Structure formats: structure tokens, C-alpha cells
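Researcher: Quick test of sequence recovery. C-alpha cells follow.
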């Protein structure tokens, strides 16, 4: 027990992984009419959307942020009682949300908001205590996630139209967080790997991913503008125009990171695959705004694609680095990357209607197998002692 709660990545990545194996097959079975889910939020669809954003992604965000903050601030890692409390709150909410009882749901909401509140409080203590101004924006995003979660619950219980807006806002906040973190680690990890592959006399001539510059900042502001217009239900022509511009800019940004040269290392190329789902999602949502595509296609490009793939990419690397293991992939880990990518492709394709049921079952199966492969490889790593003295999570 003390080992499991010695570092945030251990319990929270474990919970996120196991929940992924359970939640998506359950939702798929309900969508196909094979299983009845309680109407916790008035609609099983809202349960699914909420649990993917605030449940699955919420645990992964907690695991990453509380692990990385020790590197960012040079402070001791968060461990012990705070991690136990976070894990209990998160797990309590997930278990109680399947109930239809009003009293039980009130406890579930309290636990879910308690998780977000405690996570934000701990992160604030660590970041502000170290005067780590560069990461104050992470605190803002965590506080905003907590607020949108509370607004969602308020909208559900009071029948307010803002419940859907809160869900959209929560999704975009996770996307913004992915952009913030991936914008640091993807080019940094790629640069490090490419330099290691080059002979000493070739390193000066090797084209490497550029450091964060004005173009990266432009991409970020285009994404924020697109998200704002999308959530604010601006005129469809505006949403589509800015969305296409953001998508094109992100594709160029990704190309600058030299991902095509990392095919020999799954730990690196999977980061590029995960990030590529962002511009794909932006483009699909932009086309959906003018009625050319179903909106669900863009939603699942961002969720099944960007969020899920980035979770396994970052969780796998963090677990290896912090348990003193070589930063090398494993056949099970590579299989997880491929299967989860297949699941995302099938899920997006299913939104177009052709063979939707078959594609949905294929997506759920690939997703479940992918996270099962990830769990098979990583549950022992997350629950056993380090191979060597733990290293640090490499963050730019």
C-alpha cells in the first residue's frame, strides 16, 4: 500500500487504465441495446460523455500533473495521504454514478467535485509554493475544469441548457491542456531521440524540431479562438473558417516536429500520432459546423483519438522513467498504441452511418484489447518497486 501511493502516477494511471477497460465496453453494450445503464444524468449519453472527460481523462490528468509538478518545482513528489484521498474520492464517484438514487448521486457529485478541488488545491500548493510562474496556466486550467464540472451537474439537476455547454467546455479544456503539455514534450522528446540517433559529427547538421516560437503561439491562439467560437455557438461560417485555419496551422506545426523520422521508436512516434488527432478533430468539427459532417466525428477524433492516445503515450513513458527502467517500448506497449489508434479510427468512421454497429463493436473491442495490453505490461510496473532509483519525468 505505501508503495502504490508513493507517486501520483502509480494509483491514478492505474485507475484510469482499469476504468477504460470497463467504461467503454459498458457504454457500447448500452448503445447497442445489450445493457441498460442507469439514467444518472438523465441520459446514458451524458454519463458516457462526463465519464470520459472528468472520469477517465480526469484521473490521467491528476496522475500526470502531480507527477510532473515535482520535476517542474524541484520539490518532493506528492505522496501518502493526499494521494489516498484523491484515489478514494475518484473511485467513490465512479462507483456511485451508476446509481439512480438521488441521495447516492448527491454523494457521487460531492466526491467527484471533491477530487477536482483537492487536485487543484495540491497543485496550487506545489506550484505557488515554488513560485513556478511558468505553470500557473496549468492551475487555471484545473480550476476551470472543476468549474465546468460543477456547472454540468447544476445544469443536469436544474434542467439548464448550460449542461451541454459545460461538457463542451470541459472537452476543450482537456484539449487545451494536451496542447500545452504536448507542445513542450513532443518536440523535446523528439529532439532528444534524434540527437541520440545521430553520430557526433552529424548532430550539428541534423534538422531538429524547433523550440517554441511565434508560430507555436499563433497555433495556440487559433485553437483558443476556435474553441471559444465553437462553445459560444457563433455563426457557422465563422466557426468553420477559424476551425480550418487552426487545423492547417496544427498540421504545419506537427510537420515541424519531424515525427516521420521517429518510426523506429514507438515511445516517440505515438506522441506524434496522438497530437495529429488534434488537427484532424478541428477539421472535422469545422466541417460539421456547416453541416457537411456529423459533429460526433470531430468529438471522437478529440476523445478516442487525441485524449486516449496521449494518455497511454504519456502514462507509459512516465511509468518507465520514474521506475528506473529504460525508455524503450515493449511489444505489449506497441500493440496498445496500435490497437487504441485502430479503435479511434473505427469510432470516427462509425459516425458516418455505414456499418455503424459493426464499426462500433470493432472500436470497442480494439479499445478494450489496447488498454488490456497496456494494463498487462504496466500494472506490474505501477505496483512494484522501481528497478533502479527513480528518474525524473522529462518535461521541457
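Model:
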Amino acid at each position: 500500500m505505501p508503495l502504490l501511493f508513493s507517486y501520483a502516477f502509480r494509483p491514478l494511471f492505474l485507475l484510469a487504465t482499469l476504468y477504460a477497460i470497463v467504461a467503454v465496453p459498458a457504454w457500447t453494450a448500452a448503445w447497442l441495446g445489450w445493457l441498460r445503464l442507469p439514467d444518472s444524468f438523465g441520459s446514458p449519453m451524458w454519463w458516457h460523455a462526463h465519464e470520459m472527460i472528468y472520469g477517465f481523462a480526469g484521473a490521467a490528468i491528476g496522475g500526470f500533473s502531480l507527477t510532473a509538478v515535482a520535476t517542474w518545482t524541484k520539490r518532493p513528489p506528492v505522496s501518502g495521504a493526499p494521494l489516498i484521498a484523491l484515489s478514494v474520492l475518484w473511485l467513490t464517484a465512479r462507483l456511485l454514478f451508476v446509481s439512480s438514487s438521488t441521495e447516492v448521486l448527491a454523494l457521487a457529485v460531492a466526491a467527484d467535485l471533491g477530487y477536482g478541488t483537492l487536485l487543484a488545491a495540491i497543485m496550487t500548493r506545489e506550484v505557488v509554493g515554488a513560485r513556478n510562474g511558468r505553470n500557473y496556466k496549468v492551475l487555471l486550467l484545473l480550476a476551470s475544469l472543476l468549474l465546468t464540472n460543477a456547472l454540468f451537474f447544476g445544469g443536469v439537476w436544474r434542467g439548464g441548457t448550460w449542461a451541454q455547454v459545460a461538457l463542451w467546455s470541459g472537452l476543450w479544456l482537456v484539449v487545451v491542456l494536451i496542447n500545452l503539455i504536448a507542445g513542450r514534450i513532443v518536440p523535446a522528446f523528439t529532439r532528444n531521440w534524434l540527437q541520440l540517433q545521430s553520430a557526433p559529427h552529424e548532430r550539428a547538421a541534423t534538422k531538429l524540431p524547433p523550440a517554441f516560437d511565434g508560430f507555436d503561439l499563433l497555433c495556440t491562439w487559433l485553437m483558443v479562438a476556435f474553441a471559444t467560437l465553437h462553445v459560444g455557438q457563433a455563426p457557422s461560417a465563422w466557426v468553420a473558417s477559424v476551425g480550418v485555419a487552426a487545423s492547417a496551422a496544427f498540421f504545419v506545426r506537427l510537420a515541424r516536429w519531424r515525427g516521420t523520422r521517429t518510426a523506429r521508436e514507438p515511445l516517440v512516434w505515438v506522441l506524434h500520432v496522438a497530437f495529429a488527432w488534434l488537427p484532424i478533430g478541428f477539421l472535422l468539427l469545422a466541417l460539421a459546423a456547416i453541416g457537411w459532417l456529423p459533429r460526433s466525428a470531430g468529438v471522437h477524433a478529440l476523445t478516442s483519438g487525441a485524449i486516449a492516445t496521449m494518455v497511454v503515450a504519456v502514462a507509459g513513458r512516465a511509468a518507465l522513467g520514474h521506475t528506473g527502467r529504460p525508455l524503450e517500448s515493449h511489444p505489449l506497449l506497441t500493440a496498445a498504441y496500435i490497437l487504441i489508434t485502430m479503435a479511434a479510427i473505427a469510432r470516427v468512421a462509425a459516425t458516418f452511418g455505414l456499418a455503424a454497429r459493426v464499426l462500433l463493436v470493432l472500436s470497442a473491442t480494439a479499445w478494450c484489447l489496447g488498454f488490456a495490453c497496456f494494463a498487462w505490461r504496466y500494472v506490474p510496473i505501477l505496483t512494484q518497486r522501481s528497478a533502479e532509483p527513480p528518474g525524473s519525468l522529462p518535461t521541457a
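The radius of gyration is 20 Å.
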